[in-house]
# Entry
Amino acid sequence: MKLPKMKIKLSAKIGLYVGLIVLAVTLAIGLISLRYSSDMLLEAAENNIQNLANSAASQVQAEISKRLELLAETANNDYVKSMSWVLQKKALSDDVENYGYLDMEVISLDGQARSILTDETEYVEVMEYFQKALSGNPNVSNVYVNSETNRPEIIFAVPIYSASNIVGVLTGRAYANILTDITNSIHVGDNGYAYILGSDSTIYAHPNEEYVINRVNPIEQIETDGSFKDMGSKLQKLGIGNSGIIDYEYEGDKLISALHPIEGTSWVLGVASYEKDVLKDLNNLRKFVFVVGIIVLVIGIGAGVFVGITLARPILRLRTSLESISRYDLTEDLNSNHAITLNRSDEIGGIARSLLVMKDNILQLIKVVAMNAENIASSSEELTSITEQTNNSANEVSRTIEDIARGASDQAKQTEHGAEA
# Structure
């Protein structure tokens, strides 16, 4: 069963087409604007987090340097340099609390460390921080988790000099929250955060302390298919210790991270921003483009209908005149009824002039046909008259012949009678 074709007026068609064109152009401009705005926002976000990462890395480096300088100053105390445990304990007991340490230790050259608070000893000769300090390099240890407290800690270590010779090492042990206090003070968008990674990509500072306690390592999770797998892959590609931007997925969200090395350490500080936060304002732009698109579409359709009516009106009038001519009604005065249309220089004006010429040609044709019909009628009348005259002459001839025949017959009879006599 065929569905009936929908009849749409020309003005409606023009309005529809114009509306569709306006909609297509509006959508194209809107999509291009959204794409461009998205790129610009992401680029601005990258620059912003890169600056934050640089600033935060400098802040962490400054905090570490300040503590090492203060510790080096303390190590320069005569009691400490004496390497006399009694004098050292007397000089350092108050400094443990004053400097905000959990404990301080004096380490001899053979690696024996003695606690200021507990007097307990342990050997740390293999520890990297001890070896570096013994080489004359003040440094901070990697973040580790204290097995007794299950809390992350770090150790600051400086050499103890006496007469330009290193005679031991002084350390201060502190909670690693001195790092997280800095990283947690950095906020990016609604959900962004800062973090610190060690030289092997182990997380040393993060808003979620469980990652630090559990020593989560993004690069190791590449093999274990953990939630930091994509981040680990991008870190591996960038190279730990390098500055740069990485983008990755984490638990279904897209993140952008700026990384910057912390001077004086093998760590890197990262600032992560959620892409959804960066593009949040883009939702308002999408709504704006949608509303503008609807408004422009309505205006476009209205303008199209108006243009369509303007174009269709003379065409409809011409159609009416053409229908009259098709019914042999040639009484309409086209020059008067279509005066404006006839003066137009476009195709519609051309149609009107062609219609006028057609009507004039038809009228001329009718006149010629009528004239020829009159001539034919006149010739027919003359022919009829000639035919009548011919008939009359024929009748006269016929009567004459009859008279002659009759006379001949009478004469024959008379001749016959004369012979008999």
